[in-house]
């Protein structure tokens, strides 16, 4: 009995010593990372919400604050906040990144959210308009941010812009539904979805199918961040991409978190948004977030003159994606 | 006696248990490991075969698609119409006819069911010129790998999500060349991708948890699985098998799958398709046969042990039961029950032993009866000797009564006492239970008491003290000692206290140096001189003491006269 007691005491002492001697890992303080979203809270940013909710950012020792974009926040002001480090990452359109970079603003895209072009031409379901060539002689409404793409496509197909009748853009109007226009260019997960929500049955002609494929939502940071805090940039990107993968695997959970960010949203609408945007984010051909240098070059040609001085290699960097996924096989 | 039986039983059972369990356990262990290895190898082989079978099925599927496309791309009419389509103006009839022919041909191919769409792409612009689905015409595919590589030879694309089709898609493409080998266009077809999922989901006869599936290089699940029936293109797989395959390895092993469930699986990296192929089965099911084998081996070992134990127990009972009877017999005989019989009639060694035991008991009983009879006779002899000696005593007493000479009376009295001391030995013997052992203590005490009672002067205060050890002596030595005590105590009572009216006589007899005995008769009377004066120099009593001590007992005498007279006689013990 005495021996047994001695053994138990020795064992307990060993355990105490073992735990006592265990190296206490000194954890670095959590880094606060303000992130400016491209728009108000919605399923468009579900991957970021999930990454935060599921602790993917916490695992990278990051605490994010996801800031919805207010109508008063201009693109220029959004860039200024990024440069001044008021925000460390921003979700912005690829065309705007190119424009800012052309002006010399030191921002760089580290990944894209939408790998495919979300802009489509919407026509009423069953319409005889099946391809861009059918636009000739038709009435059309083009949003401001789609004008360059439309013009580029028409040029590519040899269709004079003058052969199409354009209506001034009105986001709120139901011109397509009431027959005042035949074709409307829409942001598929945005206005396109909104039209469907109103009960308008649509067919879509994807600009992507005609090799007009600029990146829409890109994840952007500054050159300074990339130089000085590459680990933070990589950690943020890794967690965000993991969040997007989880959101695509679990859309209902993603929408539930999305609704927690913006309770005014309607669950069914957000689910539909997830369905619509998922093929734009997750193409199967490349991992989530992947960027194709050829697309950036095409974008340069699309949005800028080919002889401008913009060095396209400064607009984006593949370094972080390569570190996260490995060099593409 | 029962502990003996239990002990023997326990030893026998323990031994049997040990010699049955140990070898069986070793054999069982070897059999189990051998069986386990065999089962695992068997499952591994099946899974490897399944993976290779699926790989082969995929290859056949792709080859069939390629063959179909190749066949149409090399058809002369298709080549000539493609040539027309690329050279002639759109408005010309030849262009329209060529377009119509190709569209019809493509739809015919779609109708065969292996592809869902066929289209011809302009070799320079990458624009679709003709398609089985006219709405696709005019679209550009200049950036697509299947267009870029399809100009050079037959190519099968990675699986990707088609926005236009709203589903995963795989394209097979190849060049349409003229007779001079110039590329006229790229012929492409959308593979009926569902067939690939069907190939992967086709049951392998290995169990309900067996599944095969494809994962692309980004860990994306390409085909549906048993546990994720709608998981294709919606789920990423990070199981160990998929990870290893994506890393370019092929093999078969135990690992955790995408559900974190332990599985036995085979994994292959299909480098030409850039896909990981995994065939796996849950360990719980794969090792079901192992668990069954384990149960069977344990059941056999336990059953054999039980049979051996039962047989051993019954066999042991055939040994221990007769032994128990023999032991009980020994105990009974030890207690004097010579009527006990084991009575085993078996014909084996135990039966022989039993009968020998019973025979021995019979013999012993006969011998014991004979001995008892002799003992009775001996007792009778002692009794008669004692009676005869008492008769002589009585005769001497009668004689004494008729004699007036005191000296003669004294002589006769002495003789009578000597005869009495001898008679008392015989009396003690025939009263004792064991004739071989004389109770010397009671004999000498009785003798001393008798002498004291007979010769003690009434007016004196003489005390007699006997310190006799119960030592073992033969009859001759006892009689000799009895006569010595008779002489010395008689002398002491008669002469040692004539002037001194009080005193003490002590008789000591004890074992000395284990081999000798010491007899001491002492008095604190007046001493030897007075004895000599009254009984005369060289009296018969003293002479008799010396003769008995030295001749009969073969001992030595030491006489001490410092206080009274002390006779110390040391003699060897004879039994």
What this model shows, in words?
The complex is a heterodimer of chains A (329) and B (575). With 329 residues, chain A is α/β, with parallel strands linked by helices. Chain A folds into 2 domains: 31-115 and 215-328, 3-Layer(aba) Sandwich (D-Maltodextrin-Binding Protein, domain 2); 119-210, Periplasmic binding protein-like II (D-Maltodextrin-Binding Protein, domain 2, 3-Layer(aba) Sandwich). Chain A is 43% helix and 16% strand. Chain A has helices at 2-21, 46-53, 56-59, 75-83, 94-102, 147-157, 188-197, 223-228, 230-249, 251-261, 267-281, 293-303, 319-325, and strands at residues 31-36, 62-67, 89-93, 107-112, 119-124, 139-141, 165-167, 183-187, 202-206, 217-222. In chain A, helix 9 packs across helix 13 (319-325) and helix 10 crosses helix 11 (267-281). The longest helix of chain A is centred in the first third of the chain and has 20 residues, at 2-21. The radius of gyration of chain A is 24 Å and the shape is globular. Mean pLDDT of chain A is 88; it is low at 17-22. Chain B has a 5-stranded antiparallel sheet with strand order 2-1-7-6-3. A 5-stranded mixed sheet of chain B has the order 12-13-14-16-15, with helices on one face. A 4-stranded antiparallel sheet of chain B has the order 8-11-10-9, sandwiched between helices. In chain B, helix 2 (76-87) crosses helix 3 (93-111) and helix 10 (406-431) runs antiparallel to helix 11. The longest helix of chain B has 72 residues, at 2-73. Chain A binds chain B through residues 116, 130-133, 156-157, 206, 208-211, 213, 245, 248-249, 279-280, 282-288, 294, 298, 325, 328-329, and chain B through 126, 134-135, 137-140, 142-143, 158-161, 163-164, 166, 168, 216-218, 220, 233-236, 274.
């Amino acid at each position: 009995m005495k021996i047994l007691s001695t053994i138990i005491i020795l064992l307990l002492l060993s355990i105490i010593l073992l735990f006592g001697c265990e190296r206490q890992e000194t954890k670095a303080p959590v880094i606060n990372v303000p992130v400016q979203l491209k728009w108000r809270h919605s399923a468009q940013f579900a991957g970021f919400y999930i990454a935060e909710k599921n602790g993917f950012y916490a695992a990278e020792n990051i605490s994010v604050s996801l800031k919805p974009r207010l109508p008063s926040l201009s693109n220029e002001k959004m860039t200024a906040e990024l440069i001044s480090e008021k925000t460390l990452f921003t979700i912005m359109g690829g065309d705007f990144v190119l424009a800012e970079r052309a002006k010399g603003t030191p921002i760089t895209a580290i990944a894209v959210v939408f790998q495919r072009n979300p802009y489509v031409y919407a026509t009423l379901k069953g319409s005889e308009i099946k391809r861009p060539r059918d636009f000739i002689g038709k009435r059309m409404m083009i949003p401001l941010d789609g004008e360059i793409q439309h013009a580029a496509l028409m040029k590519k197909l040899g269709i004079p812009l003058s052969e199409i009748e354009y209506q001034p853009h009105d986001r709120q109007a139901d011109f397509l539904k009431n027959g005042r226009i035949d074709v409307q260019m829409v942001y598929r997960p945005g206005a396109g979805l909104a039209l469907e929500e109103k009960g308008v049955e649509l067919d879509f002609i994807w600009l992507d199918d005609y090799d007009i494929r600029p990146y829409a939502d890109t994840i952007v940071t500054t050159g300074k961040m990339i130089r000085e805090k590459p680990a933070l940039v990589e950690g943020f990107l890794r967690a965000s991409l993991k969040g997007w993968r989880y959101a695509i695997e679990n859309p209902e959970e993603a929408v539930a978190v999305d609704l927690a960010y913006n309770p005014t949203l309607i669950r069914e609408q957000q689910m539909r948004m997830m369905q619509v945007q998922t093929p734009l984010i997750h193409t199967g051909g490349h991992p989530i977030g992947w960027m194709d240098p050829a697309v950036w070059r095409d974008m340069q040609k699309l949005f800028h003159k080919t002889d401008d001085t913009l060095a396209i290699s400064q607009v984006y960097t593949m370094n972080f994606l390569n570190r996260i996924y490995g060099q593409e096989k | 006696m029962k502990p003996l039986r239990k002990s023997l039983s326990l030893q026998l059972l323990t031994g049997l248990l040990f010699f049955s369990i140990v070898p069986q356990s070793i054999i069982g262990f070897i059999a189990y490991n051998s069986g386990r290895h065999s089962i695992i190898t068997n499952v591994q082989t099946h899974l490897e075969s399944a993976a290779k079978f699926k790989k082969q099925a995929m290859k056949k599927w792709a080859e069939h698609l390629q063959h179909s496309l190749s066949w149409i791309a090399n058809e002369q009419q298709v080549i000539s119409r493609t040539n027309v389509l690329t050279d002639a103006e759109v408005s010309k009839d030849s262009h329209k006819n060529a377009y119509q022919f190709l569209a019809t041909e493509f739809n015919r191919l779609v109708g065969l069911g292996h592809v869902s769409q066929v289209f011809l792409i302009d070799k320079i612009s990458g624009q679709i010129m003709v398609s089985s689905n006219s709405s696709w015409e005019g679209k550009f595919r200049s950036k697509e790998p299947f267009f870029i590589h399809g100009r050079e030879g037959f190519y099968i694309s990675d699986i990707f999500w088609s926005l236009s089709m709203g589903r995963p898609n795989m394209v097979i493409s190849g060049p349409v060349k003229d007779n001079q080998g110039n590329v006229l266009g790229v012929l492409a077809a959308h593979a009926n991708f569902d067939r690939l999922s069907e190939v992967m989901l086709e049951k392998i006869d290995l169990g309900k948890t067996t599944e095969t599936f494809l994962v692309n290089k980004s860990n994306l699940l390409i085909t549906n699985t048993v546990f994720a029936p709608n998981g294709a293109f919606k789920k990423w797989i990070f199981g160990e098998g998929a990870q290893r395959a994506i890393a370019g390895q092929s093999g078969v092993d135990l690992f955790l799958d995408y559900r974190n469930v332990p599985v036995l699986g085979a994994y292959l990296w299909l480098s030409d398709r850039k896909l990981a192929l995994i065939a796996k089965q849950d360990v719980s099911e794969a090792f079901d046969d192992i668990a069954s084998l384990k149960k069977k081996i344990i059941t056999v070992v336990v059953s054999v042990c039980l049979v051996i134990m039962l047989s051993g127990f019954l066999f042991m009972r055939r040994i221990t039961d007769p032994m128990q009877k023999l032991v009980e017999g020994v105990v009974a005989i030890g207690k004097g029950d010579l009527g006990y019989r084991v009575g085993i009639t078996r014909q084996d060694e135990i039966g022989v032993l039993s009968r020998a035991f019973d025979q021995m008991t019979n013999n012993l009983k006969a011998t014991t009866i004979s001995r008892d009879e002799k003992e009775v006779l001996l007792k009778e002899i002692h009794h008669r000797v004692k009676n005869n000696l008492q008769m002589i005593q009585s005769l001497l007493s009668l004689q004494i009564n008729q004699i007036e000479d005191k000296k003669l009376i004294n002589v006769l009295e002495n003789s009578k006492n000597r005869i009495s001391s001898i008679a008392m030995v015989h009396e003690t013997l025939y009263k004792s239970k064991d004739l071989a052992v004389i109770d010397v203590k009671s004999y000498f005490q009785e003798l001393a008491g008798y002498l004291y009672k007979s010769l003690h002067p009434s007016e004196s205060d003489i005390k007699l003290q006997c310190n006799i050890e119960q030592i073992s002596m033969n009859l001759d030595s006892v009689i000799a000692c009895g006569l010595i005590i008779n002489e010395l105590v008689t002398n002491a009572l008669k002469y040692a206290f004539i002037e001194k009216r009080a005193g003490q006589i002590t008789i000591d007899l004890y074992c000395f140096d284990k081999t000798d005995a010491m007899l001491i008769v002492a008095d604190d009377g007046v001493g030897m001189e007075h004895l000599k004066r009254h009984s005369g120099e060289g009296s018969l009593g003293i002479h008799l003491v010396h003769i008995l001590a030295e001749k009969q007992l073969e001992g030595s005498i030491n006489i001490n006269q410092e206080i009274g007279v002390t006779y110390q006689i040391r003699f060897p013990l004879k039994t």
